[in-house]
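Ligand-bound model needed. (3S)-3,7-diaminoheptanoic acid.
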Amino acid sequence: MRTESPPPIRLVDYRPPAFLVDEVYLTFELKPSATRVKAKLKVRRNGEHAEPLKFNGERLTAISVAIDGRALTQGEHAIDGEFLTIPDTPDAFTLETEVEIDPDANKALDGLYMSAGRFCTQCEAEGFRKITFWPDRPDVLSRFTVRIEADNSFARLLANGNLMETGPLPGGRHFAVWNDPFPKPCYLFALVAGELDVLEDKLVTMSGRTIDLRIYVDPGMAPRAAYAMDALKRSMKWDEDAFGREYDLDLFMIVAVRDFNFGAMENKGLNIFNSSLLLADPATATDMDFERIESVVAHEYFHNWTGDRVTCRDWFQLCLKEGLTVFRDQSFSADMRGHAVQRIKDVKALRARQFAEDQGPLAHPVRPTSYLKIDNFYTATIYEKGAEVIRMLKTLIGPDAFRAGMDLYFERWDGHATTVEEFIRCFAEVSDKDLTAFFTWYEQAGTPNVTLSSRYDEARGELTLELAQETAPTPGQPTKRPLPIPVTIGLLDGDGRTQAFLRDGQALDETVIVLDGERTTVTLTGVDERPVVSALRGFSAPVKLVSNAEARDRYILLAGDPDLFNRWEAGQELARALILGRATGQADEVGEERYAEAVGRALADQAADPAFKALLLALPSEPDLALAMNPADPAAIHDAREALRTRLALHLSDELKRLHSGLQEIGEFSPDAAGAGRRALRNAALELMAANPRSEIGELAAGHYQAAANMTDTMGGLLALTLIGGELYEKALTDFYGRWKSEPLVIDKWFAAQARDPDEGALGRVMALTAHPAFEAKNPNRLRALVSTFANFNPVRFHDPSGASYRFLADQILATDGFNPMTAARLVEPLGGWRRYKPELGALMRAELERILAAPGLSKNVFELVSRALGEKEPTQP
Ligand code: B3K
Ligand code: ZN
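Prediction:
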């Protein structure tokens, strides 16, 4: 058990840095278990600050500390495992330090570490302090020059910026010197050294400059970087077209590494990627992998302006770069792959993760006000809800003012670290609007509930819409203020055709109602017949909408809403009501048949995009349904959802078979949206067919698996077989492993497929897999493939009434915390929602959280999340 409770860091305590570092010259003498880091910093006191110098430094073995060339004595400085303190310094001076670090022993994958025999770094948020003594905070911007020395076997020596010099050194060693002309916070520092292959290309920017593009990968893997390179070039062009942003250095590099705590990192000019989000070819990567690679390559590239050139003043402002950059990558993906399909996928992800976060003890505002470990705040709320807030801002002020505000933001803040207030101020200025109330979106946690009721007065042709909002209390925020919520509305007639209307005398097909108080009433006129209201089109705000619409209206929307998001949403709402009805003992067999017929009609629509149909075909996920059931009963949800799947599979049996055979791939594989959409629909059809109890389906799935010419179809077949189970499934697993055992990224998929197995023996299988020779607990991809997939995507087995799966997860959290706290903390989330589950399950989940909290030597990361999950407002001593 922790003996003391660490004090939280608070936004209100922000003070500018006492010392600034204008320039630094770093020398790395690389050796895997004894790397020397020499740092020469030009330091100056910031204004009138009188405090002593206190730089961060952790896990550093100090060799020497000198000021202006004079070594400091013991009495002149102190080093305590967290800080280097120098009580007495001049106002401007050169600080020289030398430290030794052990990258090989660093399994936390934070700072400088080894991955597959190569040196690499991860410094966001606070990894740089494990490399050298430094004021490790994002508002200290410095110009870096970096000299790397290493054995010749580490053939490539890479750091941020431009390469200045390379050459041989005695003793079979060599060196390289890099200079980054743009001042940057230390969290954007990067270094990579090792044997790597490179894929090279070039891009001519809007002003005619030629940029060298290089993607570094494991030897032999360069062809698998081709798609990422293509995505990079499209991203660079898109940022010029959509935001007028041009790349600034002459060189842009990406390196793929296998051991990485998350997806990727936007280090200036030298992005580092988890190889799972970079390497792809049709044989080893699924369409979903291609899609994610495209979006993450774009995301990290877009950070060059939103994050690197303009950065955050402190870590409370994280959404300033993350929410905004997610909004930018979502907009890019929508342009690449279709707006409706992209929006549906983004909203699905938002609901699955962010809405869940908001409903539990880990709820926090888009801009939090206190934390113990900032690593714990790289959350769906900061990223996904942060992006929704930007989207609403654009809706509220219009696209032209939005672009003008972005231009002003870049102009005003280039080369600086800033705040969300300053960001919003730019939009208030260009739009001449008071955005004070809008700021509440950043400060208030929780998902607002919006109710809509409509009354139609046939005689007057008037539709009265009443909207009201309410947000439930969240930890630390018992009372909530109303938010400005943009609700986009359109009307259909009884035949599903768009019905025009008048608002304040203006003829419209669609309008945005801003609900900015607790309630608002709007009257639309010129409404000739009883309308079907299509509300919250395009998911215009991150809220839960409850309306008094009848099922009949939802069927009209499902059949023909021109807003494709709402067409999909109508189907989801119908399905959700049917499944939850059945799960609570109110099965509606007639309704289920009617739903199956409507889905059949939607599938028959020749004009509809296959990718959209694939989304229509998928029922709401079990975690999504659990959010709508209070208290949640995962077993009842699973059974009810399966019952509806079986009904659809039987009812649509012929259509599904036709789709499955008709969409068979002909010609060459293309990872583009059209090809991916066809494969998605074919695999969705197979997944649904797997719920058909007839025995020939197993053979069909096995045939699909065997005939697959790409990984998307291989995984489609394997997933269907996972759902069916039995001998064919076991055979496919053995075959898969034999075929792909030398491909780590594919073997991750093999682990993940088994973690999703809904069969009763799933936990036993997952536990046995932790002893499989291919299981590597220290590799986050592998650990997540098995443990996270099981806990997050196999609810019926994770919530086993015995509590054995909770115990398994808690054991994994504790074991992982011993060497990689950041990754361990990310495993806590599935236990965090314990209050939402049936009391007998909730009690078992809670008991595991308590067991974790009582464990000796817990990291701050896990301590913070577990104590918050247990419901303490501020983490305090247990
Ligand atoms: N900025 C990084 C995330 C860093 C996470 C640190 N715990 C990747 C991204 O969001 O682009
Ligand atoms: Zn980001």
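Residues 318-337 form the longest helix (20 residues).
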